[in-house]
Design goal:
The structure is a homodimer. By secondary structure, chain A is an alpha/beta fold. Helix content of chain A is 54%, strand content 12%. The longest helix of chain A is centred in the C-terminal third of the chain and has 23 residues, at 145-167. The first copy, chain A, is globular and about 40 Å long.
Chain lengths: 200, 200
């Protein structure tokens, strides 16, 4: 059976970076946005549409008539969300069955539970996450500290809702993971060899 | 500064065993019941009395008059509890300043927070904890599965109350630890080298 490492992570905790470095060190495949890329290659869907569905809150399972009656925009319909989730799940399973790999986010720990992946959850305290976001730059440099904190909290709430909706488990609850790593004041280069040992 | 590893653990998760093996592997001191032994050597207190205080629920800080008015037994008085906690804390600090060590339980992660210990939390799913308890034997072999589960839940509730009372933090909440390790279906001999890597 392939070695599969799934990574759940708080925004700003460095989980994605840690996953990428771990895959490099182990010389195995790495999937994050790559899953979206495969999905848009295989379907008619636009990248912006898939990302919007991934990043926003899943609605409760309303019937299509109810959704229309309440004027919910077309791309918010639960059928579309479920379809994207289902197609992403199929890609995740296909990749996991193909070779050893690291998969970030997208409920991979749950989707692949029968393949016994090593399920990591990466987290940190708020100060550390804010510093990491500021150092990384992107679109957060213009934000005040308060706004940045609100953004981090809001993204994690979305992730929690997304995870709970599709898995019926609590996102970040340690019982759903094999190893939870606090990256506060820790360096990636120190953590990678230790995580590697857990995988062997 | 000494290397200090503190271990919080769910009952039956194997946290104590893991701590003992880790100390052996690293060839450093190990403190668990040893803290009680030092305390009773230094004071007039009986071991059974100290264990009772450690293992039962800390009362809210009532005045001595209130405690007497409500007929609360003498050894339940908060002054006695606080005195044992304070003396244990002093011993924990003394040991941590003396040499590298592993310390199990007793809010050591909080007591030694200024010494920057590596704070581990060891947990597992209920089935795994029940199996570990049954294999270990002791006083649980006569219990039905239901009673054993109740015992595990009850001991962890006591630990949670004790920890929250003295630290104002939530026991087992991953943000209070550097590394949370799920021992479900994992072997000690596989985990020790990985934890060792985290310490280096």
């Amino acid at each position: 059976m392939n070695k599969i490492i799934t990574i759940g992570r708080e925004f700003g905790s460095g989980g994605r970076e840690l996953g990428r470095r771990l895959a490099e060190k182990l010389n195995i495949a790495y999937y994050d946005r790559e899953i979206v890329e495969i999905l848009i290659q295989r379907t008619e869907l636009a990248e912006s549409y898939v990302l919007q569905i991934e990043e926003s809150r899943p609605l409760p399972l309303l019937g299509i008539t109810t959704a229309r009656t309440f004027g919910i925009p077309n791309n918010y319909q639960p059928e579309n969300r479920l379809s994207v989730y289902k197609q992403e799940s199929e890609i995740i399973r296909e990749m996991a069955e193909k070779s050893d790999c690291v998969i970030v986010g997208r409920c991979a720990d749950y989707i692949l539970r029968d393949l016994n992946p090593l399920r990591l959850f990466i987290y940190a305290d708020m100060d550390s996450k804010m510093i990491r976001c500021q150092e990384k730059g992107d679109d957060v440099t213009a934000l005040t500290a308060k706004k940045l904190q609100q953004k981090i909290t809001s993204i994690d709430k979305q992730r929690a809702r997304y995870y709970q909706f599709y898995t019926d488990q609590i996102w970040g609850d340690k019982i759903n993971y094999d190893l939870c790593i606090n990256t506060t004041k820790r360096k990636f280069e120190d953590m990678i060899p230790a995580i590697e040992q857990f995988i062997i």
